[in-house]
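Budget justification note: compute hours in this period were largely spent on complex prediction jobs such as the one shown. Inputs:
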Amino acid sequence: MSVGIIDYGMGNLKSIYKAMEYLGYRVKIIETPDALLNVDRIILPGVGAFPRAMENLAAGGFINEMKLAIDQGKPFLGICLGMQLLFEKGYEDREVAGLGILQGEVKRLDTKLKIPHMGWNRLCMRGRTHPLFARISSAPYMYFVHSFALSQLTDDVIGYTVYGKELGVAVARNNVFGVQFHPEKSGEEGLRILRNFGEMV
Amino acid sequence: MTKRIIPCLDVKAGRVVKGVNFADLVDAGDPKEIARAYNLMGADELIFLDIMATLEMRDTICQVVEEVANQVFIPLTVGGGIRSVDDLRKILRAGADKTAINSAAVNNPELITAGAKIFGSQCIVVAIDGQRRRDNTGWNVYTHGGTRNTGLDLLTWASEVERRGAGEILLTSIDADGTGTGFDLEMTRAVSEIVQIPVIASGGAGSVKDFLNVFTLGGADAALAASLFHFGQLSVAQVKTGLKKSGIPVRIMDEGPNGKVKVR
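Corresponding output:
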């Protein structure tokens, strides 16, 4: 099973690369859109600002090929900023269109608590436990670092955390998944989520 | 949000020094083995301090981080002798999630600003060593391993590093360090109250009660200990269990209905 990690100039890919390798997958760094054809799974990581990320994806020619791969049914996982990009719009610095693969908007955390939301917080299941969360504890701690988040608990939300209010921090629709936390930095339970993604059919 | 417990490892020439003395380690100086053991015990992050921190040694600490990051999947922070944006870049590229800067931040505060701008605030931890002034009017900032009094007021400096974009403050009390009689609660509280960013308290941990106090009375977001954990006087798990009993939220892994999770 091969896993492609999209490199579009948004942050360090090392941790997610090492985590997937540790789990026994053949990992490829995807630097050009056509390389997406040669992998079985796609991960869109990312740290940084939403507008720049969308510009980079567009400039790299990734957007159409990513959507094509998703239409073909390849499991696709967005992590952190990579999850945020899946939605229709972002409001970091300015209003910018996202990939629009999932419904929703990404807004700055609206809380009196510290921003960024940084550290270990619970991932609570919404509805029936999704296969992405198979064989982990019922409300495991995950490692978060973010200042923006999905603004509403949409139908696709399969997991939430509580930071001032309930935040949708895991989404799934068919073969598309997104997590706001960093499974690659969340110890054994985070690795389990990555393995579940790798085993998704 | 949980309170974090962070073991700190002193690294010299690729080896953990001062020794680590808990069960089942084949090699008590091997950073990988120690990191793995702490991960299994429930450490929330690990901090590596490069205590040689000469230019030649820079590559060695990067190699250590790289090896640890290959098999331990929790946040890693590296500090010691960082002087430039280039140092920050090398360490982050090696697989560290955060960098801790101390003396260089005081000598060149612009490094905090530049680091936060280029890599993001979440990567920039400013380490501050504070000591109480003799006249008892507050605390001064010390650098160079606590040997040099900068004359800077601790609270003034803490505010400045926050304003410049630091993501966290690692606050060490020179007065409490090595005593094992508890964190410097007054100093920790003073800094926690003046900044919005998380404060990691360091220096003086000797008992579960000390950790409890630094969270409840000191207002810390995280607490660091070194020899206490290394010599097995207390384990990370014991500290966390104790804190949980006292109502402090901590990450304890095996509390779900499915029991302890094992990957591989």
